[in-house]
Amino acid sequence: MTELTFPPSFSWGTATAAYQIEGARHEGGRRDSIWDTFAHTPGAVVNGDTGDVTCDHYHRMPSDVALMASLGLDTYRFSVSWARVCPDGRTPNPEGLDFYDRLVDELVGRGIRPWLTLYHWDLPQALQDRGGWTNRDTASAFAEYAGTVLERLGDRVPVWTTLNEPWCSSFLSYAAGEHAPGHTSPTEAVDAAHHLLLGHGLAVQRIRADRPDVTVGITTNHTVAEPADPSNPADVDAARRIDGAFNRVFLDPLFRGEYPADVLEDMAEAGLGRAARDGDFAVISSPIDVLGVNYYNGAAVAGAVPGDESPLVFAGPGELPRRSPYVGSERVRFVPRGLPVTAMGWEVQPEGLTRLLVRLQEEYTGPAGVRLHVTENGAAYDDVPDAAGFVDDTHTRRAYVRDHLAAVHAAIEAGAAVDGYMVWSMLDNFEWAWGLAKRFGIVRVDFDTLQRTPKASALWYAEVARSGSVTLD
Ligand code: GBH
Description:
- One of its GO terms (cellular component) is cytosol.
- The protein is α/β, with parallel strands linked by helices.
- It has a single domain (2-467), classed as Glycosidases (TIM Barrel).
- The chain contains 15 helices and 13 strands.
- The protein binds ligand GBH.
């Protein structure tokens, strides 16, 4: 039995996102976001599920916060619904802000640190009607919205994340069609990526100017890709491409003020960089304090099958047409290695998280003096509740979290400046295009009765948070 002890200041938390848990679609002046529109499009989401009600967190917020407190967690990462706070994208809605005001007070009152994400994919539909993230104006609208939320909550929220996973809100949303708005245009995707980065930079500048005392950052998602056959140059090239398409296309502008030369080449046909104007990269690379790291899986990749000219089809959830999110590298193949997979089909590879954190530290955040924080890690499994609604996920989700915490510990030992960890997710919730069928929560939600029941993983995690250590059994 090995016991891994984390630094005394290490933070233990969970994360959620507004559209995935809140429900209350049209209450308190909220208007539709692109996810309302998309979820109500036939074939877009598995089983036709929507976020209309989902966990009904909007009405159950105080008891959800009480549950977090009972687990002894010190930080809660949530996102603000832009369409609740500015229903037309620009005009503040005081009633929408009231909800987050109450949430923050509830958290602070229970000794839980609020960690606020401004954008977790739910763009107001009104802004999508004017082009969404393909329109440069959306970046400035985002900075305005950041200012609106900051004005109301900046006195009590110490940590601000601009964007969650811009890869998803550009490539998965505008190229793959898997996420709202469900477009399948590589050109739109690269423009959206640029405007998301610009919106991030403008929001950082706005937050800094208005409240120099708060911590500011962004959260990016990462797949750690390895060549299926390291001796095959085509596979090595595939790994380079996937690293570029997922990771470096965002990290390099953020930390080095430019797109990587090889990714510019890979995505030249789609037009990566054509949306950039003078001065953009100085805004995008505005200094931040913390990089949020979301990690779920590793992947082995292989080059295209020589001579393959077959039509590009891409399998995804739902019934709408999908294409590859890997713009310019559409024929790269993901090759199963026989590792265990979660209910999402993602390979479980905890060591990938160690390598990722150490690499980020060495190549990006360390030189910039930026801290690291794992803002999401977790797993969906096909839970089997007993008659009382209790899920024993000891050998599935709990093992996944345990092994990834060991990987974080190893990264810290290797010199990565990681301040904390958050399980995705606090609650079972609306898993985007997969709807309510995929469960990531450490707390079970019965979507008929809306009853919450902590799973074995939650009880175990509470003990980890209390003791600051993980026992490998
Ligand atoms: C996060 O997205 C989201 O922030 C959160 O809202 C969501 O509920 C949660 O994760 C669970 O999905 O091509 O095999 O390498 C994570 C989305 C997961 C997208 C991993 C890319 C790569 C699979 N990412 N995925 S693979």
